Amino acid sequence: MTALHYQNPFQLLVAVILSAQCTDARVNLVTPELFARYSTPQALASAKRRDLERIIKSCGFFRMKTRNLIGASSMLVERYRGQVPSTIDELLELPGVGRKTANVILAVVFGQAAIAVDTHVFRVANRLRLARATTSAKMELALQRVIPQAQWSHAHHWLIYHGRQVCHARKPACPQCVLLDLCPSAKYFL
Prior knowledge:
By secondary structure, this protein is an all-alpha fold. It has 2 domains: 100 residues, Orthogonal Bundle (Endonuclease III, domain 1); 70 residues, Endonuclease Iii, domain 2, CATH 1.10.1670. Helices cover 56% and strands 0% of the residues. The longest helix has 19 residues.
């Protein structure tokens, strides 16, 4: 259900790490070459920094992302026999993996109930007053209280889609929004 293109848990992990401060569309342009060259954690762990930086440069923050990708891949090889771990605590130990990335992996790869809070989820949830929070971590907890657990992973995708297609950051398309009558923030944008 994610917009990122991947074929296995490792590729999704790499793609989500790259997606920080970057669009999924941009990541999808970069990953074919990246995955063709570094198809396993073992291969990426031994990548030359300069080569990896060249491939991922257009994703932004490429030096930090290079360190994180090599570090996370090395940890996957050393601690997890090249497999992506399935618990939030283990995922959070990987370089470049925060709560959003960990929750995406848990929900998409392992089918666990998780709400990944990115900028779209944060913005839409606040605007709709579905939950109110000042940080992503607080928003995750607030959304967990108001959304049935069985819907957490789906709600994350619904909120992202709504944020990308309708409830834009600068100029939301309130007149076209199916939630217009329910949205307490619409009056500020109409």
